[in-house]
Amino acid sequence: MKNTDLNQVRRVLIVGGGTAGWMTAAMLARILGEQIDLQLVESDTIGTVGVGEATIPAIQHFNAALGINEAEFLRETKGSIKLGIQFENWGRQGDSYMHAFGPVGRQLGMASFHHFWLAAQAKGDNSSFWDYSLNYQAAKAGKFSPQSQLPNSPLPGLQYAYHFDAGLYAAFLRRYSEQRRVKRIEGLIAKVEQKPSGDIAAVVLTDGQVLSADLFIDCSGLRALLIEQTLAAGYDNWQHWLPCDSALAVPSEARYPIVPYTRAIAHGGGWQWRIPLQHRTGNGLVYSSRFLDDEQAKQTLLSNLDAPALAEPRKISFVTGRRKQQWRRNCVAIGLSSGFLEPLESTSIHLIQSAVVRLVQCFPATQDMTALSNEFNRQSQQEFEAIRDFIILHYHLNQRTDHPLWQYCREMALPDALAQRLELFRHSAQIFRQQDELFTEVAWQQVLLGQNLLPASYHPLADSLTKAQLTGFFADLKQVISKTVAALPSLQSFLQSQS
Length: 499
Fold this sequence. Notes:
Blueprint: E1 11-15, H1 18-32, E2 37-42, H2 59-66, H3 70-77, E3 80-82, E4 84-88, E5 96-100, H4 113-122, H5 134-141, E6 161-163, H6 166-178, E7 183-186, E8 189-194, E9 200-205, E10 210-212, E11 215-218, E12 235-237, E13 246-253, E14 262-266, E15 270-276, E16 280-287, H7 294-302, E17 314-317, E18 321-323, E19 327-328, E20 331-333, E21 339-340, H8 348-361, H9 370-396, H10 404-411, H11 416-428, H12 441-450, H13 467-487, H14 491-498
Parallel strand pairs: 1-2, 1-11, 2-7, 4-14, 11-20
Antiparallel strand pairs: 3-6, 4-5, 8-9, 9-10, 12-18, 13-16, 13-17, 14-15, 15-16, 18-21, 19-20
Helix pairs in contact: 1-6, 1-8, 5-13, 8-9
């Protein structure tokens, strides 16, 4: 049955550009095409936060849905390959582990691989959990080649994401969108007009233009011009769990060869990111102003760069949390207007992606949007809270004694769901996840084990193999992984082949 209601949603206005605005525009134009009239208003005089340069593997699905060629994407965004995130000093100072994408080892029957690794450890084995991660071994060797399956093996190939220049990605998607009839309007918004019902009617620009729409998408960043300043959607503040409220960002000269992983380096009052691109390195320090002042943060960041800075550090202030209603009335918040989670696990761009996909799935046929907005908000809340708990996990499991920030995070009360997960793992090594949760069981295992939480027991199935059988199983896995990594080209040569 075709929608012929005069009340149907046809006119869509995106307020704000940047990564969030143009990712939204590109996907709506690609999927809904002729069915909507899509406009985007932004101003060149308003800067974007633009620090979301590291991603997770799901970004491949987004680009594929848009029909984007990977080689062109890497060229246009000065992008590189990411196989995981290396966490340094998060357990004890001097510790290092990686949240590597993809599987670790190979599951045997109904028990996951880490149970067998724990059983082997109990029998005297001293191998690292990451000896059995193809992604980790390739990352540390600086190698990469895309392949879905290892030759003559049941093991999958490398699972990867990207590092890229977020500003260049936004410009790339702007060109993509404008080729698909998205109209960009340059201008500053002077006021927002509402209907008697409370819905947004139009935005008025400083030059007097009035832009009306049926559905408004707020991509105005931390300003949250529509969703909060106009519609007062409310905000869940999570600073008692994630006390960092500031970041300094600075680019530095590129270092070669480029490594295929992000680095997250814990310091006294916060943590530093290092993201290698083809033309530069993205750096930043996330910190809590309660525990570290701006000048100390600046000195910490600049003294820990691996190459000369290309600019002065730029400060970003934020409140960790989420908008209570990310879709309120006829307005949907996407990007930083919907909430903020620090980029410890590279989820900033993913949260844009998932919100855009969710909007496409829940796109309203008519202006009665209540049922759809309720479901959108339910899913968004669930996603934000699950990612929040995974980020809290890193802070809480620290064993550092050098700074009050780390003591606070170690001793703070946890969200109930996270406390239950930790208790379960401590006693049984078990991790269970909801079906639509972002982070896999293997991701949880790597953080828990990487930050020195060894469980009291493991699944009894792991004792069904003798020590000799375990040794043989592990030796076979190591051999397959080492042979595969040895045959891979360097990341540098792969990138050169894409240019």
